Amino acid sequence: EPSVCDKQAASSAVLVQLAAPQQCTAEDRVAIQRQGPGSAADSFPGLTAECGKSSWSVFGGWKHDKFNACLTRKVGISSGCSQCFSRAGEYSFKNCKAACLRSWCSEKCLSCSENFFPQVTECAGFEAPEPSVCDGKAVPGAGRN
Predict the structure, then answer these.
(1) What CA–CA distance (Å, rounded) separates 140 from 40?
(2) Among 116, 111, 101, 118, which Cα is nearest to 137's?
(3) Gap between the Cα atoms of 43 and 33, Å rounded
(4) pTM of the full predicted structure?
(5) Nearest 5°: CA angle at 62, between 61 and 66?
(6) Which of 38, 40, 97, 98 registers the highest number of CB atoms within 10 A of its CB?
(7) Which helix (H) or strand (E) holds 111?
(8) Reduced to 3 states, what is the DSSP secondary structure of residue 20?
(9) Phi-psi region of 37 (alpha: psi -120 to 50; beta: other; left: phi over 0)
(10) Within a 10 A sphere around the Cβ of 87, how many other Cβ atoms?
């Protein structure tokens, strides 16, 4: 039978696996922040949406490798950092299809996908630039639509 020390070591190992280190470097953060918030095609949310559109299929599901290749190329970040945002894309793919059918930056889509933002922040180690609503409603600061 395992000793108390063995049990404590095993539960510590599990905690270490769950509390993954922040995946984005300081350079990743600078590259992401440089793209800025909003819903314009060249904003960070716009670039992640563009990469997301080419990273899934009805029968194949979400493809992390395709998303990460796209985002690392477009923004110049590490694949480890990109994976934080790929997980958000996968969440939206699995949970927000109906809400996001019309537009990735519609109010309905963003309301659904923002449920995963805390996990992205934890993974990346900072709050990434956020998208703005682009479905015709007046949104302060959303002038680059």
Answers:
(1) 14
(2) 111
(3) 9
(4) 0.78
(5) 125
(6) 38
(7) helix 107-113
(8) coil
(9) beta
(10) 17
Tokens of 86: 């790929």
As a whole number, the mean pLDDT across the chain is: 84
Q: Which residues pair with 56 in a beta bridge?
A: 62
For 95, the token pair is 């949970």
Give the model's pLDDT for residue 59.
Answer: 87
What span, in angstroms and rounded, lies between the C-alpha atoms of 125 and 116?
14
Q: Distance between CA 88 and CA 60 in Å, rounded?
A: 17
CB-side exposure of 28: number of CA atoms within 13 Å? 21
**In this structure, what is the dihedral angle of CA atoms 5, 6, 12, 15, given to the nearest 10 degrees?**
-140
pLDDT at position 135 is 67
Q: Amino acid identity of 78?
A: S
pLDDT in tens, 28-50: 999 999 999 999 999 999 999 99
